[in-house]
């Protein structure tokens, strides 16, 4: 009898400790979304939420016939390309006629506090859309980023040097 009571008591104690640990470790914002990290925005643009599905951030792709989207971390200014970039490895999520039709990036590669450039191919006639984001909050199934214009990003990078 005593052994069963000890097992039940220790199980209840471990459950209580686990629940306290979870409450202490989780930081909640807004409508109870769990956040791993949060920093202040730069105040240069509007805040936008991006979805992470199964640990993958799916890249927006305007037209699959035009080219592939990519995402790159902006490291600093570059005389040749405008920005020095570190390209993140993309993962093919779906295929159409043997070619990738949906690409994504492992969400662990996207870090809070970093600035990223996302290329969205639109058409052959028009130049690709470029989205510049500064990640300010990240959770297991979403991240929030401040969308920045190219001009504001150039000014920010010049002042940061």
Overview of this protein structure:
- This protein is an alpha+beta fold and 161 residues long.
- The protein has one domain (32-160).
- Helices cover 22% and strands 43% of the residues.
- It contains two helices and twelve strands.
- It has helices at residues 2-25, 150-160, and strands spanning 27-29, 33-35, 37-38, 47-51, 56-58, 70-78, 82-87, 90-96, 99-106, 115-120, 129-138, 142-148.
- The strands form three sheets. Strands 3, 4, 6, 7, 10, 11 and 12 form a seven-stranded antiparallel beta sheet that branches.
- The longest helix is centred in the N-terminal third of the chain and has 24 residues, at 2-25.
- The radius of gyration is 21 Å and the shape is flat.
Helix percentage range:
10-25%
**What's the overall average pLDDT, rounded?**
76
Give the biggest beta sheet: 7 strands, antiparallel
**Span between N and C termini?**
70 Å
Structural class: alpha+beta
- Whole-number total of structural domains: 1
Count of individual helical segments: 2
Q: What is the β-strand count?
A: 12
- Radius of gyration, in Å, reads 21 Å
Shape: flat
Q: What is the N-to-C order of secondary-structure elements (H for helix, E for strand)? A: HEEEEEEEEEEEEH
Strand content: 35-45%
């Amino acid at each position: 009898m005593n052994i069963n009571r000890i097992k039940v008591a220790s199980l209840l104690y471990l459950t209580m400790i686990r629940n306290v640990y979870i409450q202490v470790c989780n930081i909640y914002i807004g409508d109870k979304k769990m956040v791993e990290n949060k920093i202040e925005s730069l105040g240069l643009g509007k805040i936008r939420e991006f979805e992470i599905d199964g640990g993958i951030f799916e890249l927006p792709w305007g037209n699959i016939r035009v080219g592939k989207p990519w995402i790159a971390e902006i490291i600093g200014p570059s005389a040749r390309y405008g920005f020095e970039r570190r390209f993140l490895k993309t993962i093919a999520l779906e295929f159409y006629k043997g070619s990738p039709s949906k690409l994504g990036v492992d969400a662990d590669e996207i870090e809070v506090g970093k600035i990223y450039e996302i290329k969205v191919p639109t058409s052959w006639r028009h130049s690709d859309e470029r989205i510049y984001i500064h990640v300010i909050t990240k959770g297991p199934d979403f991240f929030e980023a401040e969308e920045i214009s190219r001009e504001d990003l150039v000014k920010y990078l010049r002042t940061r040097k």
